[in-house]
Amino acid sequence: MPAPKSPEFRRRALDLVAHGEPVAATARNLGISESCLRRWMARDDVDAGRSEGLTSAEKRELVELRRRTRVLEMENEILKRASAYFARENVLPK
């Protein structure tokens, strides 16, 4: 997998297309695939509000919230098991 391109590189590529350069020629000249450039264009449209979807910031937030939820659920499960273990230990045998 090729290394990710810098935000400045992406912005320059999008500016070239916005100023009338053909997508295929721009992608070829920059050494990236046409589909990659089209994905960047779609992402830019969403981030700029020109089309519907989650913005990059919203996607990052969603990923972070899902990660945090997984951690909290795991911590909750550990606490439940520990509570059950200590509850069993405190019961006196008859």
UniProtKB/TrEMBL annotation:
MF GO annotations: DNA binding; transposase activity
BP-aspect Gene Ontology terms: DNA transposition
A Pfam family: HTH_Tnp_1
Transmembrane segments: none
Protein name (record): Transposase
Source species of the chain: Agrococcus pavilionensis RW1
Taxonomic path: Bacteria, Bacillati, Actinomycetota, Actinomycetes, Micrococcales
